[in-house]
């Protein structure tokens, strides 16, 4: 049986770019007859056929950007949408927002629907289930067929496309360093499962800050929350340990930690300091208000939209995928000692 062939493989074997292969298979006048015949012969030998839906997406512009988010409950994602919409409208595009609900199959189905001529390109934050299962073929297919794609927040190094991320390692370091600087000695972290890249990076920043103090990392102070299970009971286990501070990788985890501390009669911030992540309404209006890492979701959305529209409007030009890294800052509030 002949192996499955992709545009990338054809390009590599024949020593040309993926764009040249794609144009040759579309019989573009930009490619010489000799090169087109060589590419088509190779493709025919291996029974390669281009994805007609992807070709339709590239050839028929809709002036619409598709956005696929894991969920809408987080303040962060709503600010990203606002940033995308601002730039899209300024550049003559509309947006279509969909949700994967953290499900791999839902993500695949949504991508298939949107790339059936509905949008010119996609901005996506990958679903947790896709990351956990390491099943990313639906993204590889987009890249293979040159569908404009930008990933943000949750990305994966194996997907060769433009991306916008927060410096999550640096953010985790800043949050933990703040707690160390105010005198905390036993700092717990509430994070995501290891397959979620943003949580893993924030954990790395936490561990770096702890190691700088000369203290050995205590695995009992690391809680990896599975959101398919009861969040409250999982975080409650951290309070079985001797802790005087908590760094939580989102504001829901931070607010839950504060609630549990209050149930146990702990005073905040006198007995327990808390730092969260994402400067949303929960952080601002909790009692006490929560010290938090500000992600600048609006700026991320602006950057993602600009990258995608540039890719859509310059699809005839070869361009190495770009990664934009957004710096975070710490907003000090009542939940951590001054």
Task: Give structural notes.
It is a single chain. The chain has 338 residues and is α/β, with parallel strands linked by helices. The protein folds into 3 domains: 7-50, no CATH class; 56-165 and 297-326, Response regulator (Rossmann fold, 3-Layer(aba) Sandwich); 168-295, Rossmann fold (3-Layer(aba) Sandwich). The chain has helices spanning 7-14, 18-25, 33-45, 52-59, 75-90, 104-114, 128-133, 137-144, 168-181, 197-212, 231-236, 251-263, 281-285, 297-313, and strands spanning 64-69, 94-99, 121-124, 149-152, 162-166, 187-191, 222-224, 245-248, 273-277, 291-294, 323-326, 329-331. The strands form 2 sheets. A 6-stranded parallel β-sheet has the order 2-1-3-4-5-11, sandwiched between helices. Strand 9, helix 13 and strand 10 (291-294) form a beta-alpha-beta unit. Helix 9 runs parallel beside helix 10. The longest helix has 17 residues, at 297-313. It is elongated.
Structure summarized in a few sentences:
The chain has 338 residues and is of the alpha/beta class. 44% of the residues lie in helices and 16% in strands.
The mean pLDDT is: 91
What composes the largest sheet? 6 strands, parallel
Highest CATH level, the class of the largest domain: Alpha Beta
- For the biggest β-sheet, the strand order reads 2-1-3-4-5-11
Radius of gyration: 23 Å
Query: What oligomeric state best describes the polypeptide chains here?
Result: single chain
Q: In terms of per-residue confidence, which ranges show pLDDT below 50 for 5 or more consecutive residues?
A: none
């Amino acid at each position: 049986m002949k192996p499955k062939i992709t545009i990338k493989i054809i390009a590599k074997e024949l020593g040309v770019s993926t764009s040249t292969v794609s144009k040759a298979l579309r019989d573009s006048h930009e490619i010489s007859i000799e090169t087109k015949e060589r590419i088509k012969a190779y493709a025919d030998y291996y029974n390669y056929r281009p994805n007609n839906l992807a070709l339709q997406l590239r050839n028929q512009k809709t002036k619409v950007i598709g956005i696929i988010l894991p969920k809408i409950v987080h303040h962060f994602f709503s600010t990203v949408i606002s940033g995308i919409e601002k730039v899209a409208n300024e550049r003559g595009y509309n947006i279509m927002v969909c949700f994967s609900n953290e499900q791999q199959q839902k993500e695949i189905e949504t991508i298939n629907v949107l790339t059936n001529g509905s949008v010119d390109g996609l901005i996506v934050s990958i679903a947790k289930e896709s990351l956990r299962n390491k099943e990313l073929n639906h993204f590889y297919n987009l890249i293979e067929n040159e569908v404009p794609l930008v990933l943000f927040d949750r990305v994966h190094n194996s997907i060769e496309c433009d991306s916008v991320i927060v410096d999550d390692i640096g953010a985790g370091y800043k949050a933990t360093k703040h707690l160390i600087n105010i005198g905390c000695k036993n700092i717990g972290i509430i994070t995501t499962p290891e397959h979620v890249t943003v949580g893993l990076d924030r954990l790395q920043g936490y561990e770096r800050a702890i190691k700088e103090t000369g203290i050995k990392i205590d695995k009992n102070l690391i809680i990896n929350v599975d959101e398919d299970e009861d969040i409250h009971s999982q975080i409650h286990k951290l309070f079985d340990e001797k802790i005087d501070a908590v760094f939580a990788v989102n504001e829901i985890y931070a607010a839950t930690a504060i609630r549990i501390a209050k149930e146990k009669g702990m005073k905040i911030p006198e007995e327990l300091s808390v730092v969260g992540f994402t400067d949303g309404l929960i952080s601002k209006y909790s009692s006490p208000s929560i010290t938090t890492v500000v992600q600048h979701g609006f700026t991320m959305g602006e950057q993602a939209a600009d990258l995608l529209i540039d890719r859509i409007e310059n699809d005839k030009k070869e361009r190495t995928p770009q990664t934009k890294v957004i710096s975070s800052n710490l907003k000090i509030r009542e939940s951590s000692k001054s």
